[in-house]
Amino acid sequence: MAKARSQYRCSECRHVMAKWVGRCPECGTWGTVDEVAALATIGGGALQRTGVPSSPAVPLSSIDPDCTRHFPTGVSELDRVLGGGAVPGSVSLLAGDPGVGKSTLLLEVVHRWAKAGRRALYVSGEESAGQIRMRAERTGCTHDEVFLAAESDVQTVLGHIEAVQPSLVIVDSVQTMTAGDTDGVVGGVTQVRAVTTALTGTAKTTGVAMILVGHVTKDGAIAGPRSLEHLVDVVLHFEGDRNSTLRMVRGVKNRFGAADEVGCFMLQDNGIQCVADPSGLFLDQRPEPVPGTAVTVALDGKRPIIGEIQALLAFRNDHAQPRRAVSGVDSSRAAMIAAVLERRAGLKISATDVYLSTVGGMRLLDPSTDLAVAMAMASAYADLPLPATTVVIGEVGLAGDLRRVTGMDRRLAEAARLGFTTALVPTGCGTTPKGFRAIESATIGDALRSMLAISKSPYDNVVTPLRRDRSSNDPDAVDNNWL
Predict the structure, then answer these.
(1) What was the pLDDT predicted at 178?
(2) Is 102 among the annotated ligand-binding positions?
(3) CB of 239 closer than 8 Å to CB of 250
(4) CB neighbours (10 Å) of residue 181?
(5) Most distant pair of Cα atoms in the chain: their distance
(6) Per-residue pLDDT tens over the stretch 254-310
(7) Of all helices (H) and strands (E), which one includes residue 106?
(8) 3-class state of residue 368 by DSSP
(9) Cα separation, 398 vs 291, whole angstroms
(10) Mean pLDDT across the chain, nearest whole number?
(11) What confidence score (pLDDT) does residue 477 get?
């Protein structure tokens, strides 16, 4: 029988090599090559070995479904993303930028968990016990059933779990934990994999629900090996802008529920609060509508959220290069929509400065917001405000056609719930809520005519197509080709 030889494999791309190298020649990643044992071969075929199973295989229908039911954490928005709560024996990974509020959120989770009569263990490898106690007093998250351990050795952490016997464990963070029997630097690929494997094995054998905090790189990816996301059951991303108090937990992977849910929070000085209805945060509060604004309904996962787009057009008399400033909207799609308005609808905006922005720092990357961007620019061009009770939903094609988007029934239902009465949408949108009016348009030109029909010109008291040339300084100049 041939002697088994060692091989070396990259944890990122699974490329196998005969000797160790610092950088994988296949994917170019540093520090991901580890030694693995190769099977002994006989005559070119792999040596087959059989083992005695630890437990017999059983029919799928005989397994009790209640063994993996959800237990609510007490934080409603987090339970929404998790699919109903934490599952015993599950391992969740919560990743986010530094200072976004991960520790504050999880401290609120263990507090609510303890208030429900269950024991929780918070393990911190980054902060001391005094620092966590200070934050707990500031946010009002102190409870006798919340146990705290400031440890960085994974074997010691497993000892704490055995001694405390909690039903929920928070490890903050997995990149700061070390495995004494494994080589590698703290936070390296080998150490992170060994720590995660040990914690996952403990969660599966003891039935303890575990939430791991993960760091992210400067590109926004989870630090460590890619296999880290495969080892855990749930992967969550904690997102937020430092200039805003709004925070979002986005599900990326979930073995116990939907993987496209989003939870909204407000990070305050005294803690973190759930936001059940975030649409009001992205609308500008004004008594009267103004030109250059359009309201749309975007889908973030399965959640419809109302957003407002504002446009400002400044006409230039010189021959300088026009400026395009975009915030919260995809700049390439905004340039495409401006070109469609110029070519297909006759709006002379190629020589104008275009400024686009969203209210509240919202990021609208959904193609369903194309029509709202177009209507905002057209409203600013014509100096006509859209009614405050109108939403605009639809995708714009390069031929000037309007395309249907997914989830139109949920978008219209959310708009009707918030008091909107009219929607400018592509043709074939389907059924609408009771008392709600949907104005369907096939092309961008039809949508602009519909906008003029539901808007009131500030220059006269009748609803007629606006024919003033807004690119001229002469107030009596006429533009006959803008539609």
Answers:
(1) 92
(2) yes
(3) yes
(4) 8
(5) 97
(6) 999 888 889 999 998 888 999 988 887 777 777 788 899 999 999 888 889 999 999
(7) helix 102-115
(8) helix
(9) 25
(10) 85
(11) 41
Domain boundaries, the chain: 6-42, 71-276, 281-454
Query: Please, which pLDDT band fits residue 5 given cuts at 50, 70 and 90?
Result: low
Looking at the domain covering 281-454, what would its CATH class be? Answer: alpha beta
**Is 97 labelled a binding residue?**
yes
Query: Tokens 């005695």 appear where?
Result: 52
CA dihedral 214, 220, 226, 230 (to 10 degrees): 60
Q: Are 176 and 162 in contact (CB under 8 A)?
A: no
Residue 478 known to bind ligand:
no
The CATH number of domain 71-276 is 3.10.350.10: no
Task: Evaluate whether 171 touches 210 at the Cβ level (below 8 Å).
Answer: yes
Task: Tokens for 107, please give them.
Answer: 């401290």
- Angle between the 370-382 and 444-454 helix axes, to the nearest 10 degrees? 60
| d(C-alpha 63, C-alpha 483), whole Å | 65
**pTM for the full predicted model:** 0.77
For the segment 56-81, what is each residue's pLDDT rounded down to a tens digit?
888 988 887 776 789 999 999 999 99
Judge whether 379 is annotated as a binding position.
no
- Give the residue among 461, 466, 310, 449 at the shortest CA–CA distance from 384: 466
Query: Helices marked H in 270-330 — which ranges?
Result: none
Identity of residue 175: Q
Closest CA to 186 of 236, 126, 235: 126
- Any binding-site annotation on 98? yes
227 is an annotated ligand-binding site residue: no
